[in-house]
Amino acid sequence: MTHHSVAHALKASPGIETTVRGWVRTRRDSKAGLSFVAVSDGSCFDALQLVAPATLPNYQGEVLHLTTGCSIEATGTLVPSQGKGQSVEMQVASLRVLGMVDDPDTYPVSPKRHTFEYLRDYAHLRVRTNTFGAVARVRHCLAMAVHRFFHERGFFWVHTPIITASDCEGAGEMFRVSTLDAHRAAAAHVPSPTTAPNSPDFSQDFFGKEAFLTVSGQLNVETYACALSKVYTFGPTFRAENSNTARHLAEFWMIEPEMAFADIFDDMDLAEEFIKYLFKAALDERPDDMAFFNEHIDKTVIETLKKVIESPFERITYTEAVKLLEQAIARGRKFEYPVKWGANLQAEHEKHLTEEVFKRPVIVRDYPKEIKAFYMRLNDDGRTVAAMDVLAPGIGEIIGGSQREERLGVLDQRLDEMKLPKEAYWWYRDLRKYGTVPHCGFGLGFERLILACTGMQNIRDVIPFPRTPGNAKF
RNA sequence: UCCCCGAUAGCUCAAUGGUAGAGCGAGCGGCUGUUAACCGCUAGGUUCUAGGUUCGAGUCCUAGUCGGGGAGCCA
Question: From the CA of A36, how many Å to the C1' of B8?
Fold first, then answer.
């Protein structure tokens, strides 16, 4: 007797005998002498309907007591369904209970509507629901598509370090990695990860110096780009920012491609092609899950994805963006924050551009150098840098990237302006000394991509076990 | 970190300062090739914690804890 996944069974031709295993979604009894048991094993969105006749030896004793969440193994014949709602069902010859639900009244994911907020407290069980199962499958589909996309284009996947003792990443607050006695460290009154006069003696620590969890693999992956030409990272990333929003996690997954012999325009082309490839993969490979999202989560998500795939992204400069916003204000549009060249675009400004002006993804480039990182390439105007952000409707910033400063003199000048210690960047500067090349790259927040793809609203609901300030449950 | 809101049955929520309620879910029964089933019955509560005001507090006051939304930072 062969064993099949529910996904396989639903596509099998009628008459086949097989065994499926999974968890009960619902049970309905009929006095016609049978029970309908919907069983799901997560292999696809749909459950398989089992038709369990009252003649089963354990019908009274077990089948009639099956509740949502019970694990079972059923053997029988796949037949065309007599009822509506499914084309195939299994006529059960034998049904074995693997695990009952102890107390159905307190089973956290009973067959009723639950709020996502409630389900976050049951992250170990929420994946058994339609929504979280669909998210998990789409997440996998997108992860595979990321690797496929780069592999097909000659990019190499580089495993940049998770732990870094480099004090030059500078992309945000970092988590400390230490084997020093926690109480001694506390007694030393360390105010922040940056070195303080009374900080512990990190020369005694595991790495002989302060170490942290990475906030970005970019600086490391640049070294590989300057040898392998086209590379990318895809791995966990950590930010110890006290961010409490639906778009931020303390631990998230980031994708960072880096290309040598390429400029900011190549970078934008890659970002656009990448997003479109990923959206298409989700639509092509997970039509069942996407149909669910479109029906129950966001009625426009499929249409939105299709539109993104079909139409070119809008591309404007920061200066043009400011002009558009000023024009909107002149027409009477109110913003909470003022619009001024030189200031960061606020979330409300980005929303206006993507959701009201263009109604599609917008790539904004050439930002004032003062509001961007030191490594971004200085433009000829001397006051902007070759940075680009991809803004998506409903999500906001989904990609941030730039052409990197490849001229040592200019890089040093920027380090000085930002009062950063050149010594710490010695290996990064070496890349500019020894055969420097123009290069560029970007960072894509994987969970933000999943938000865009599924129409889900909260980033905590698209990662299995979200880590946020004050919460590292499970 | 700042602003706003919330915490009552397994879940979602009601309840002028005056006996604690409904829907869903659960259990039992009825009905039905069922599928958001339907009908009936039943069970289920330290109203987040600690103080206070009051004859009387789920309700008002104070403090705390936890959670959510928005903002900033960013991906």
Answer: 37
